[in-house]
Amino acid sequence: MKIDFFEVPEEGLSLDLVDAQWCPADILKKGHAVASLFLKRIGPRVIAGGTLSATVVLDCDRCLAPFDLPLQAHFKIDIELPDGQADVWEHGDHQCHDEEMDVHVLENTKIDVSDILLQQLYLALPMKALCNDECRGICESCGINRNKLECECKQETVSPFAVLAKLKT
Ligand SMILES: [Zn+2]
Ligand SMILES: [Zn+2]
Question: What is the 3-state secondary structure (H, E, C) of 9-61?
Answer without folding.
Answer: CCCCEEEEEEHHHCCCCCCCEEEEEEEEEEEEEECCEEEEEEEEEEEEEEECC
